[in-house]
Amino acid sequence: MKPDADWQRLSPLALVFLIVSGLQRQVRENLFLFAGAGAGAAFTDWLGVRELLLIVLVFVLISTLGAMIYHRRFRFRLEADAVRVRRGLIEQKELRVRFDRVQNIQLGQPFYYRPFGLVRFSLQTPGAADKEVELPGIPRALAETMRDRISAVRASGPAADDQEHPGPAADASTLFAASPGRLFLHGLSSNQVWVIAGLFFYLGGNLLERFGERMETWMESAVDSAEALVIPGPSWLMGLTVLLVFLLLLFALSGLLALARFWRFELFERDDRLVATAGLFDRREQTVRRNKVTGVMLRQSAVGRVLGCWSLLVRQTRSSDEDVTASRNAFVLPGLRSGDLTLSATLLPGLDWAREFHGISPRFRQFAWSRLLLGLVAALALLALILGPAHWSLVGIALLAALAVPALHLRFRQWGWARQERMLWVRRGLLGRRFDGFDLEKVQQARVTSSPYQRRHDLVSLELVLPHGSISLPFLPEADAAGLANLAVTAAEMAHAHRV
Asked: In sequence order, what are the beta bridge partners of 471?
């Protein structure tokens, strides 16, 4: 029997990773305890240092016990054309994944693994919502052997190299590398700034309220004990200063997090594989075969448009239409500038960066504005009837509508498309922008729909279903939509006939 046919266990150090992962999962699953109205306030009223330590201890004990059982029952085996895993806490399950089904391979090395030469190995197949196989705490040499053996397999046939030890890897060609300055700008321009702000106010709002009450009590006592209290400026100026300092700290924190996540980011190709390495505390390596790439997305947030910063997402097959662009497992290229957008043609040959786009019909803007006006009139009339014509909510709805009018105009201006032979770019956005690029042969379905309003003006909406999700173009001229749909169907049929 070959050595790699025997069942193997994880390293004892994998317990550290399993405990940390369990703690993170416990925190995520119990965040709902703070979601109820007043629940967070009631919790923080009695929360002290002793209670906080007790809660942390309970979570650590639960995570440690679960990690020990999981680690003891975990086994894996490397076969000639597949990897087999046995795992489970109470019910043991066995999973076998063929190498030719793998679309994404990841090697991660947290800082506490580095002195021992261990890594975290994981892989994902098309249609999987998350990592399908994860082996935390295996020797790096074994992980690299598995990576090279999986990467050597072509989807069109059996393994290209079924030997016990594959040959040496081919030389890598660097495609892109991001400097620390670019990575910091990526953090400034990413939307995680607002996610951090939301978490801060969600988790820390009640604690801040208690802190504010204590500060108010302290100020009252200071006024009582002092003859005069000098305020260094108007209260609104102090509030504005505090807000600006808070925003600067948020952006700085976002930039530092991006530096830690993407530290020494490098993208290179080896044979038919795209490989990205990054990470300061957790050094990660992601590998994807080119024939598993279904498209690319170029993203530029509102702040990124000011800073001239872009990011690129390599799209792959996934199991649902949920947005996964912010997922930590996504294949992201950070810190791009305008001159780096030609990488799209390198990652997906033939997909050149387009600068001229065809817009959608102006009827979209007229239709949206008319519906907004009708909804506004109905809402104002109903509220005036229920609450009275002088209620403050009427002014709020009017201000909201005043902001919605230019937002709809910006939305209309962002929609667009550009075709290059069989390649298609679709642009969308509001203040930020997204450019989806893909080969029309990847289209699985082309749906053309029209409402009564659209039919009166010879307009339709086109939806293209791709392996990584759906992309829509509303209010297109009927001839343009039919041409794109027919071209997509023809390209898909030709690609299928060629594979057969």
From this structure: 464
| Strand partners for 295 | 315
Read out DSSP for 190-244? Answer: STHHHHHHHHHHHHHHHHHHHHHHHHHHHHHHHHHHSS----SS-HHHHHHHHHH
SS3 content of the chain, % helix, strand, coil (to 5): 50, 25, 25
Domain contains 173: no
Please indicate, yes or no, whether residues 207 and 342 belong to a single structural domain of this protein. Answer: no
| Per-residue pLDDT reduced to its tens digit, 267-323 | 998 888 899 999 999 999 998 888 888 999 999 999 899 999 999 999 988 644 444
Q: Which two tokens stand for residue 368?
A: 């949206």
Report how far residue 336's alpha carbon sits from residue 177's, in angstroms, rounded to the nearest whole number: 9
Per mean pLDDT, which range of 106-115, 129-138, 399-408 is the poorest? 129-138
* pLDDT of res. 200: 64
Query: Domain span at residue 486?
Result: 288-360+414-499
Crossing angle of the two packed helices 39-46 and 192-225, in degrees rounded to 10: 50
Same domain for 94 and 161?
yes
How are strands ordered across the β-sheet holding 358-359? 331-336, 310-316, 293-300, 433-439, 423-429, 416-420, 358-359
Same domain, 220 and 126: no
| Structure-token pair, residue 453 | 């309003």
The structure's pTM equals: 0.80
pLDDT at 434: 94
